[in-house]
């Protein structure tokens, strides 16, 4: 910085401020004594661009979409919501959260042991996480994220000027030793996926939850964010961590179970956090469409999704693929949800080989920070006859990847 200040003929503080602005806007990355480097791509370039388009004749098992056959028919719910809207149209100045939606959402949270707290609505899980992080953190703060983890979240953190701190994940969720290391290093926030973790299918069990709560109890100022997007597509019980720290948020999206285009997520948390998010919503979009809220409330009230049947459908396909791969000597992970994660020795080579064999998978680069290479396979579009040929192709492409051990 001093050399640059001399070259430009400006005060070193001016250069330091410029570096800080570039870092906060995601243009450069700073790595301590190793210096600063221009990012390989803009912070707003999402990882969805790292994908393989399925040409004609190739099966797409990488998109990550739910099985449309398992999504409920929205016609009656939308019609009832529209009728209610006709009787009492949503106007400016009304409460942003529909009372019936809030009551049903809170009842569902209570049934799963999520601590009491106010409820608001956001346009999906990532919107909620974005607003919670912005409500509490400043550019430059470190955020512990799962690695491998949700690509959208791994994009969001640096786009907000925050610094991601990767935490390894096993089948039970974030590895305690990794979480402890992050907390001791001073991360300001920890984001955990409770069930159906994307891309590994991890789910936080009772014992793991107890260990993580104990770790968080020693760091009460850390912001805890939990993502339960797997609600209503998995039958594993929820073991929430919420309430362990002073500020926390719990997000439950309806995208995977009821349809991605609904763009509705429930957010609860401590009163300060929810109030800040709701207040910022009022200054932007104002509210999430009450017509959509009424539609989701109708779906909940009528039991439009048979959770056990949906979970079993995804589970049968996921477990069959994991089992078939392991029979072929290929490590695979997928404890819950609709995805299977397969470690590979050469990610680019594996993706290309599978494409040649007629399968388009998701490159692991979309989900990794420091985690070893892998590919993600979504089972939502598979049937029983697909399992064996897909497993054969994946086993040939995966190479001699070794399972990761966390000690």
Overall average pLDDT:
92
User: Which strand-content bin applies to the residues?
Assistant: 15-25%
Q: What is the tally of beta strands?
A: 15
Q: Reading side by side through the largest sheet, how are the strands ordered?
A: 4-11-10-9-8-5-6-7
* Largest pleated sheet: 8 strands, mixed
| Oligomer state of the chains in this structure | single chain
Overall SS class: alpha/beta
Helix content: 25-40%
User: How far apart are the termini?
Assistant: 41 Å
What is the number of helices? Answer: 14
Structural summary, described in words:
The longest helix has 21 residues, at 307-327. The chain has helices at residues 2-8, 12-24, 75-87, 99-111, 125-136, 151-159, 176-184, 206-217, 255-258, 271-282, 290-301, 307-327, 347-356, 384-398, and strands spanning 28-30, 36-38, 59-60, 119-122, 142-147, 163-170, 173-174, 189-193, 223-227, 248-253, 265-269, 339-343, 359-360, 362-363, 374-378. Helices cover 40% and strands 15% of the residues. The model has no long low-confidence stretch (mean pLDDT 92). It is α/β, with parallel strands linked by helices. The protein starts with a helix and ends in a 9-residue tail after the last helix. The protein is globular. An eight-stranded mixed sheet has the order 4-11-10-9-8-5-6-7, sandwiched between helices. It has a three-stranded antiparallel sheet with strand order 12-15-14, with helices on one face. Strands 1-2 form a two-stranded antiparallel sheet. A hairpin with a 2-residue loop joins strand 6 (163-170) and strand 7. 44% of the residues are buried.
